[in-house]
Amino acid sequence: MTTEIWLQTEEACSLLNISRETLRRNCKAGKYIYKTKKSGRFADYSILLGSLSLRDQNRYYSENKFPILEEKSFSYDLDLNLDLYNKAPDWAKKKADKYMKILLESKDLYGKDLKDFIKSWNQKNPSLKTSYARLMAARKTYEESGISGLLAQYGQNKGKNKVDDQCFEYFKSLYLLEGSPSGYSCWLMTIGYAKETLGMDIADFPSLSSFKRRLSKELPQQTIYIARHGEAAWNRKYGMYID
Q1: Residues 6+ apart with CB under 8 A from 196
Q2: Are strands 34-39 and 6-7 parallel, antiparallel or unpaired?
Q3: What does the mean pLDDT of the chain come to?
Q4: Which end of the chain is more exposed for a tag (fewer CB within 10 A), N or C?
Q5: Domain-ending residue, one of 154, 170, 193
Q6: Looking at the 3D structure of the chain, how many domains does it have?
């Protein structure tokens, strides 16, 4: 298997069930990570498989008899996820690009085979070294948050921005529910709300850590925990018992 899987124009159109013109427009709109190659009067587009939705990736793996990625309930907008990646600074993209390469090449490996792969990878790629723990963490992050979750500390420098009250209330309505998505997914959905409903510029949007800091200042940790995990889980973690 190659380091990256790039779908050629016809293959991508077939997988996504769209026309060449729609594929071209989607590329220009930043919906996929792509590269072009001149072919006569026209340009052929190659689409990075990892930038497609999990459903489309799984369809590709199924058709090509690769192991299917674990299905997750993505409640955030894929376009927004890629928008964050496209607008991230180059230094932040380096980490995402690095782990997308490693994840694609090692996606069907586990246990000893994965550890052997990492050893070989580190020898061949001394500037892109990783470890078993970091790679497993990257797998989990990608499954839960998509490609933007792999960005290197994205939004770190924007944490000083004040969290808008309306956005904060919207974030709380998503985050403080039992069985709700991860904080990152709630943050992405809040960005979508700010962009579509409030017309805010997401380039200056506060980071997830900014939202969590404000939440911790306004609510006790136990209140946050019981809201997200329920009373039974709260009792196991915080409850006081007497024999």
Answers
A1: none
A2: unpaired
A3: 78
A4: C
A5: 154
A6: 3
